[in-house]
Amino acid sequence: MSTVSTGPETAGPTEPTGQTEPAEPAEPAGRTEPAGQSAGSGAAPRSAAEVIAAEEALLAHNYHPLPVVVSRAEGAWVEDVEGNRYLDMLAGYSALNFGHRHPALVDAARRQLDRLTLTSRAFHNDRLAELASGLAELTGLDMTLPMNTGAEAVESAVKLARKWAYEVRGVPEDRATVVVAAGNFHGRTTTVVSFSTDPTARDGFGPLTPGFRVVPYNDLGALAAAVDDTTAAVLIEPIQGEAGVVIPDDGYLRGVRRLTSEAGVLFAADEIQSGLGRTGRTLAVDHEDVRPDLVLLGKALGGGILPVSAVVGRRDVMEVLRPGEHGSTFGGNPLAAAVGCAVLDLLRTGEFQRRAAELGAVLDARLAGLVGRGVTGYRCRGLWAGVDVDPAVGTGRQIGERLLRRGVLVKDTHGSTIRLAPPLTVTEDELDGALSALAEVIA
Ligand SMILES: Cc1ncc(COP(=O)(O)O)c(C=O)c1O
Question: For residue 273, which atom of ligand 1 is closest to its CA?
Fold first, then answer.
């Protein structure tokens, strides 16, 4: 199935640090069962069709996956139960920025597995302060609230902002508002979908949580009009990922910073998808040299190994939380902290940000060449692009299915828009192969 012309064996000159991809995904240590057999289950190998049928019967239908059953992966490549190989151009919605099973991250996890995995925060563990120190260094902020999933980080930021508004800003009780942007995607909990503007995400899940004001994205005038004495925070994505990699005008993030500072309200940047190297900088707000009051991280912070998220913020905001007021059994566990620290070590090298910037320029140039040839428009920053395919060519889903048959995995966002977000370890040849496949399927 692997028809992308260049496999890992032809890795280009920009081979990433520490990431050596063998021609075939290497046999993980201690794993001897054939492809298709779930590790450790003892069950007989199953075909893709059998696995898909079993999922259909046994799993809630809240996803509509492409018909591929992945059983192993390494670097930018995954392999399905039938031995077909695919270039992963989705990278777990940016949770796999460092590729599948990056050796340094797997090693950090293994070493921690042999020592200590979970304490709950009823006790201290010897890894968490190191993660918080690294996150303070990364963001230029002071303190960390560790969580697990992205949605939990968003929930936590909303709680922090509300409490800060009552205790510090003097907003009357239960009147606090958070200003958000239309087209946002911040997760799936009931409060978070309450301020989604996507009816599919929101409708049928009421009663919705009050206290949110929605303004158009990339519109500073509308934002200024929505901020008042009740405002606790402005919560935005520096680039809207799920909306189709929507990049605001240059100056928007600086404008949000100026406006929130002048109004004395918090600027909370959801960098869960845009952060940690994806856009060619460590954070997407770095493109405008802006420092928010709260930075929300997730996805790649867990190195593609386990869910790790965090709210990192100003000391005076973070200190409004006192014992018992917020928490999570798994948040800040030592395994998560060890992997998070290893992720921060990779980012400290600057290698991944540099790769995203350099290969992002290649991606941008290739996409520009497709405009008018099946592509009506695109937005690209670093190794992250939203590509609007001419609806006459097919829906995003259909494009995804055609690319799947050519050995490339992508995911549609809305309508005929597909998102490209390969691991930052992808080589130029691999990227080139994926874009040639895209050019073919939309020709
Ligand atoms: C910007 C942003 N925030 C929050 C989330 C929610 O993260 P999770 O799925 O880990 O809850 C996502 C997920 O796509 C996201 O893109």
Answer: 16
Cα of 284 vs centre of ligand 1, distance in Å, is 15
| Closest CA to ligand 1's atom 4 | 186
Helix 396-405 crosses helix 428-442 at what angle (to 10 degrees)? 120
Instruction: Confirm or reject: Cβ of 331 under 6 Å from ligand 1.
Output: no
pLDDT (tens digit per residue) in 382-437:
999 999 999 999 999 999 999 999 999 999 988 899 999 999 999 999 999 999 99
Whether the CB of 270 sits within 6 Å of ligand 1? yes
What domains, with CATH codes, occur in the chain? 2-28+70-88+352-442 (3.90.1150.10), 105-348 (3.40.640.10)
- Looking from the CA of residue 152, the nearest atom of ligand 1 is 11
**pLDDT tens-digit readout, 137-189:** 999 999 999 999 999 999 999 999 999 999 999 999 999 999 999 999 999 99
- Compute, in angstroms, the gap from residue 312 CA to the centroid of ligand 1: 16
Is residue 29 pLDDT above 70, yes or no? Answer: no
Q: How far is the CA of 185 from the centre of ligand 1 (A)?
A: 7
Q: 150 CB less than 6 Å from ligand 1? A: yes
pLDDT of residue 42: 55
93 lines ligand 1 (CB under 6 A): yes
The response to whether residue 355 sits with its C-beta less than 6 Å from ligand 1 reads: no
